[in-house]
Amino acid sequence: MRPRPVIAALLLVVAGFAAVTLAALEGKEVAVLRTSPGEGAARETRVWVAEHEGALWVEAATPERDFYRDLLDSPQAELVRGGARQAVLARPQPGEDGHALVRSLLAAKYGWADCWVGLLQDTSRSVAVRLDRDPAGAERPRG
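Request: output the structure for the sequence above.
Response:
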C-alpha cells in the first residue's frame, strides 16, 4: 500500500474527530466562569451551564480542576452568559446526589454532545456546582 493514501485517510479521520469534538464542545451554550485564584489574575473557564429550580448549575469534571479549587477558596465568581455578566455565589454540591443531578441536567440540555465529551473526559468523579445570584457582587470591583 502506498503511504500517501494512508496518510491522507489518517488526516481525514483526525480532522473529522477534531470537527466533531469542536461541534460538541462549542455547538450549544457555553458560558465563561471567572474565578479568583487568590493572588493571581482572574481565571476564565469555559463551562456548560444548565438551569434547575431557579439556580444555574455547572460541573467540575474532577475535583482537581483549577476553577473548582478557586471556588472552594472563594465562592464569589462572575458568570458571563450570552454576553451578560452576573455576579454569582458558588455552592459546590459534592457527593452522589449532586453528581447525578448535574450529569442529568447536562445530558438533557447538551444531548449527543454530552455523550461525545463523556467518551473523552471521565466525569465519574465530577462535582456539581450550584451558582446563585450574588446580591453583594455588584458592590465588588471586577477583575
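Strands lie at 31-35, 43-47, 50-52, 55-60, 76-81, 84-93, 127-133.
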